[in-house]
TrEMBL record:
Keyword Amino-acid biosynthesis: yes
Enzyme class: transferase
Species: Metallosphaera tengchongensis
Pathway stated in the Swiss-Prot or TrEMBL entry: Amino-acid biosynthesis; L-leucine biosynthesis; L-leucine from 3-methyl-2-oxobutanoate: step 1/4
Lineage, highest ranks first: Archaea, Thermoproteota, Thermoprotei, Sulfolobales, Sulfolobaceae
Summary of subunit composition and partner proteins: Homodimer.
Protein name listed in UniProt: 2-isopropylmalate synthase
Family the entry assigns: Belongs to the alpha-IPM synthase/homocitrate synthase family.
Amino acid sequence: MFSTRKIRIFDTTLRDGEQAPGIDLTLEQKVRIARQLQRLGVDTIEAGFPASSEGEFFATKRIIEEVGDSVEVTGLARANKNDIDRGIEAGLASIHVFIATSDVHLKYKLKMTREQVLDRIYESVKYAKSHGLIVEYSPEDATRSNVEFLLQAVKTAVEAGADRVNIPDTVGVMTPFKFQELIKKIVEVSSGRIISVHCHNDFGLATANSIAGVVGGAGQVHVTVNGIGERAGNASLEEVVMALKKLLNYEVNVKSWLLYDTSKLVSELTGVPVPFFKAIVGDNAFGHEAGIHVHGVIENPLTYEPMAPEEVGNFRRLALGKHSGIHGLRKILEDQGIYLDDEKLKEVLQEVKKIADSGNKVSAEDAKRIATRFLTS
Ligand SMILES: CC(=O)SCCNC(=O)CCNC(=O)[C@H](O)C(C)(C)COP(=O)(O)OP(=O)(O)OC[C@H]1O[C@@H](n2cnc3c(N)ncnc32)[C@H](O)[C@@H]1OP(=O)(O)O
Ligand SMILES: CC(C)C(=O)C(=O)O
């Protein structure tokens, strides 16, 4: 399925990402990440939750001062006057107001009736709009809400003036086909407002569900760098962006070649390592050891890579091990200035495999050392 529709990228690394246990960024660290997100080209930066602490308040304020001229900066607020006022005091021109719509949240957490929640949606969105803000409303736990009530909540937010409505899969229980259908229904009652999706990764489906939401009609996706966030995390920015661009041909503002550096920066500042096998930005995302693959990639990278590493700022890494073949070994040695005939290469390869079979790693330098013996013998 192909489309040229433009999809907004709403980055919540500094809000939902930072909410994860063990991640507490300083003001300076938040500002560094915000600057990188602005360079990357996201459409909205959710800078934090200004009412939650002094630090969050001042970080939001500084981020607006630093990058607010060139990118929309928003902040999270509960559906109450105090949180919205705190956002306004921090200087926000855009606010993300949320209140849950699922019965389990209403009964046990909010202790409110459905009617009270609808009133609260209307009042809080209207209040924020009356201060001239761009308002995005999220019915938290939308995907476990009664669908009729969810549609009522969305209509209420739209009537109160919400500019965008975001549909959160708060505990990650959606499957792609189900979510696509739900988003279609939401779009039908939203009077042309941008519909957004916010997916959590509890079943490893956050990226798939986000894409399904877009196919269902969403015009914006909430993401975090490296997929950090509550519990199993959020939909990862790099996966969503590249899937939208490369697999479905949607238009996205993000400069994909800055993805790897952005991932490294967020990893460094949060202290959360990027998994080796992480799609797009993992160190093995363009890694090859198997002889058949390495041969193919040397002839033409398209054989075993769905995109070029440079497109996302990552690197191709050719490794040696028990699965290596002659073509790969030749390339690794020639890159280091070592040229051997096929007979000698085969002997070096046998040694490489012997080392690997005994459970040891073989680096390019190890191969060079072995090959040097053959050069001089
Ligand atoms: C799905 C999400 O990610 S939602 C965002 C979650 N993020 C965070 O919680 C991070 C920031 N949070 C905080 O710093 C604090 O929780 C604060 C400042 C917001 C509130 O702190 P406290 O006043 O101490 O309350 P606490 O966090 O224990 O409880 C939450 C209160 O907010 C209420 N509440 C929760 N969500 C909403 C909402 N969307 N709208 C209005 N009220 C809400 C709860 O019912 C509870 O109210 P109560 O105090 O009257 O019982
Ligand atoms: C506030 C909302 C969007 C949220 O973070 C969630 O439901 O996961």
